[in-house]
Every structure is written in C-alpha cells, then in structure tokens.
Amino acid sequence: MRVEYKREVVNTPKVVSSFANTVGGIWVIGVETDKKTNLPTLPPIGLDERPGIEEQIVQSAQSGIYPPITPVVRVLPIPQQKGRVVVIVKVPESIEAPHAIENSTRVWIRTASTTEPYELAEIDRIAYLLERRRQPEQHREELIERAAGRSPYQNSQRVRVVVAPVYPRGLLLPHDELYERAQRLQSQLRYLRDFRLVHEAISATGSVGNHKYYFELSVQGVSFTEASAEPADVLGETPFVFLGNLLYPLGTALNTALAFLRDTVTNLLVRYELFRWSGIGYLHADKSEIHMPTKVVREQLCTDQHVAVSTTGLAETLIGDRATVLTELMRQVLWAFNYRTTTDVLRGRVIDIAKKMNLI
C-alpha cells in the first residue's frame, strides 16, 4: 500500500492522490517490477537524466489534483550508469483529503493488491475524509480522553503513553479480532494479565512489583497506558529518577500496543507524558559515578508539572525501529530535566538499559 514502482513518469495525479487519500507512501520511478510479485527488479534501469523532472511531477500534482498536492521529489543518479537516474516521490497522508482528479470527479485510494493497487473510493470513505478535513485530530483526542476518564491514576504522579493512529479511521481492530488478540497475547504481555471488556475497548489494571498501571486499547487502535511513578531515591531533599525509571513504562506500553497493532497499516502517533513531575531530579549515571551527585540532581531538576513529547512512525516498521523511537522520546523528555547529550550516546544507553529490561 505504501510503495509504487513505475518504469516511467505516468499517471502522476492518480498515483500521488491515491497515496495522499490513504496512508501516504513512496513512488519509485525508473524501476521495473516482477509482474507476479510486484517487487522491484534490480539493478534499476532508470530514466534518462534530463532537466525539469522534479518540476514536471510537482506541476502535474499541483495542477491535476484538487486540492493540489506538493510532493517531495528527489532525483538520484544510478552509480556506474552515467546519465541514468531514479526518481523518488514522497507523499504524506493528507488531512486535506479527499483529493480528486479528472476535473474533481474521481477519488482514488490505495489497496494491498499487487495487480490492482488502486480503487475508486466509496461514498462512505469520501464522507469520512471530508469529515476528517474539519476535525483531523479532535476525534483521536476524544478517544484518548475517554480512556483517561477510566484510569484510576488521574490525581497522582504518573506517566502516560499513547500509541494511536494519527488519523483514526473507524474500526482498525473489530471487536472480535481485538478480543481474540487479547486472549492470545494475555500470557505474553506484562500489561495484559487480567483484561476485561469496556465500551469499544479492552482494559487491564494491575501491578508489576511496585509499578501500578492501567492499560486500554480500543477498536479504533488507540492504545492508552497510565502508570504510577515512584522516584528511585532521594538525595538531600530532592527525589530523583534514573533513565530506566523513565524508560520502563514507555517501552512496556509501546511493546504492548505494537503487539496488538501488528499487521495493521497506519501512521502512528507515539506520545509520552509526565504528570506532577515538578521537583523531581534526574541522574544520568549511578550516584557513585558522579562527582557531587546531590548538586547534579538539583541542577537536573524538572520544573514542569506536565511534560508531553511525541514522535510519529509507521505501524509496519515501528517494531524494528523501537530503539529509534525510545531514543527520540527520551531525548525530548530529558530536555525538561535540564539534561542533554549526543543522540549516539543516548541511543547506546537506551539500547543497553532496554535490553536489560527485556524491552527490545
């Protein structure tokens, strides 16, 4: 659904609009495919290099699609093939969808078929996309707030992890499928030991040691987790946490959500929030390894009651890309503790701790 291969630049409005109307994707031009599998035949044949390829594609998308789309286009030379190039066109999922072509009479969407990758959108799908134009994020936030209303940890120091479609599209996991997945995963996931049914979702409340949690996942694919947060220790009069204290609930909630969302095709928002964290410090290493740790923990103090950070990714690839997601969210969170380090150093520490905690 996310990739289209073409030998030449053809049907630009149809290809670009179908990506924008569905989940976004990449159009690779200059590559032949196997007719049975639709997989690329390598090495790529490419196109003759000529000026104006980027402009041609962008102009066609802007003039042949309504509302117009401006894709990102890159022309890449093929090594060892002088004068030959491959063109990459990146199209995001659009909140301005539906995008129509042919004098605004046809709305195309992507399918998972290798032989028929496009189909005309049905009236219900077009109506949904029109509604999404007006309320692109409100519906998702309403689903999150509904889950928050059932959490028993609303008035305590806590963390919240949300993994949700950027633009929820009706039922991502129909009721029976959601229930069957919960039954199958119950023995494997820490946050799913005793689940029950709630309105349009399954939920579980419990504890792992002193770590208390509430987990919920809806038929729309919205995963919501809140967990109690306890400081690791106190230095002087300042409670503080280590990286592992921040990483554990995030990694556990992310793994739980991705286990349910496996094999779905959607763009995901991953949001991590801290509530009532003002006055909590951070130590980037064991206190025995830090000179004057009491001074350091006071300097690395969170001064915000509420910290919210987020990133996005593809449901299909996030399982293999968890270290990147965890690193990016930790980088943003630690900024609120007056702490920063290089991404490579932080990634190494995140991977090391996550492996010890069986998070990756």
Automatic annotation (TrEMBL):
Gene3D superfamilies: Schlafen, AAA domain. Residues 4-117 form the Schlafen AlbA-2 domain. Transmembrane segments: none annotated. It comes from Candidatus Segetimicrobium genomatis. One of its GO terms (molecular function) is ATP binding. This is ATP-binding protein. Keywords: ATP-binding, Nucleotide-binding. It comes from the Bacteria.
